[in-house]
Amino acid sequence: MTNDNKQSAKTVLITGASSGFGRAAALRLAQTAGQIILLARRQSRLVELQKVIEQTFPHVKVHSHAMDLRDDVAVDALPTILPETFREVDLLVNNAGLALGLNGAWECSLQEWDDMLMTNCRALVRLTRRLLPGMVERNRGHIINLGSVAGNWPYPGGNVYGATKAFVQQFSRNLRCDLLGKNIRVTNIEPGMADTEFSLVRFSGDKAKADKVYEGTRALSAEDVAETIFWASSLPEHVNINTLEVMPVCQAWAPFAVNREMASPD
Ligand code: NDP
Ligand code: 8X3
């Protein structure tokens, strides 16, 4: 299988483009895209990235759109308020997402659980639902979702975050079923430990705690994950990568956890 850049998406929408995978994916996809829509809440970051892309890839048209994906009204309005030349999205990268906290389920903040559900699940399906009819009408498109190894493998404190990513995985597969017979691809990319702002967000800005996650490791970089997004999107149109689980070499699965203080008295 060789990459065929002629098949690459023309108009790309990337959520969570202000940081990490989203930013790196925008820079990587700009090498072949015609138009790129950058979406996240932090406008100044998007504007800075837009300038970098425009300077580095003068052929690419960039539109920055600052919004909170938890806002249903803003998500619903998006397809009709984009500048006309950006409306026919060929590649949707549903990347925006977050983990909040690493506590046991009995002591987690319900607000944080809601925020993860709203961003990682509700916003992702809503935006997909809004853009999908156009893809179906044009019989062309690719949706790349950012799942996680946390959607496949449980770990302590992963409670709702992992569950949101399991949702994303099954949503991706079910989309494939619904789209059978249409020329639309769906891919779920499932990275392991990657050094972005992810842990800083998870630990509410506590940099020492976030740095500890990556201490002594060679974690995935944002660019490593961006490369997988680019690769999946640049394969010939008849090739669908369903799921792609990617870990750094320094990461593997834990053994089963066994508590040895619960033996019966006799
Ligand atoms: P970052 O924290 O670096 O980036 C997250 C992005 O999501 C930011 O651009 C942020 O932008 C955006 N975002 C978050 N909430 C919202 C919102 N309500 N509305 C709009 N944009 C939002 O993390 P990563 O790049 O690492 O994560 C990207 C995706 O990959 C996430 O879905 C994450 O769960 C997943 N992932 C991460 C892994 C890791 O170890 N890093 C591993 C596996 C999966 P802003 O704050 O400006 O709105
Ligand atoms: C992020 C990877 O292992 O921190 O999705 O949950 S992990």
Explain what the structure shows.
- By secondary structure, this protein is an alpha/beta fold.
- It has one domain: NAD(P)-binding Rossmann-like Domain (Rossmann fold, 3-Layer(aba) Sandwich), CATH 3.40.50.720.
- Helix content is 41%, strand content 15%.
- It has 8 helices and 7 strands, in the order E-H-E-H-E-H-E-H-E-H-E-H-H-H-E.
- It has helices at residues 20-29, 43-56, 72-81, 110-138, 159-178, 198-202, 207-214, 222-234; strands at residues 11-15, 35-40, 61-66, 91-94, 141-146, 184-191, 243-246.
- A 7-stranded parallel beta sheet has the order 3-2-1-4-5-6-7, with helices on both faces.
- Helix 5 (159-178) links the parallel strand 5 and strand 6.
- Helix 1 (20-29) packs across helix 8, helix 3 runs parallel beside helix 4 and helix 4 runs parallel beside helix 5.
- It is globular and about 75 Å long.
- The structure holds NADPH dihydro-nicotinamide-adenine-dinucleotide phosphate and 2-hydroxyethylsulfonic acid.
- 2-hydroxyethylsulfonic acid is lined by residues 148-150, 158, 192-193.
Briefly say what this structure is.
The protein contains eight helices and seven strands; from the N terminus they run E-H-E-H-E-H-E-H-E-H-E-H-H-H-E.
Order of helices and strands: EHEHEHEHEHEHHHE
- Identify the CATH class: Alpha Beta
Task: Specify the biggest β-sheet.
Answer: 7 strands, parallel
Radius of gyration: 19 Å
What binds here, in terms of ligands, is: NADPH dihydro-nicotinamide-adenine-dinucleotide phosphate, 2-hydroxyethylsulfonic acid
The backbone outline, from C-alpha atoms, is globular
Number of structural domains:
1
Say which CATH homologous superfamily is assigned.
NAD(P)-binding Rossmann-like Domain
How is the CATH topology named?
Rossmann fold
Q: How much of the residues is beta strand, in percent?
A: 5-15%
- Percent range of helical residues: 40-55%
Strand order of the largest sheet: 3-2-1-4-5-6-7
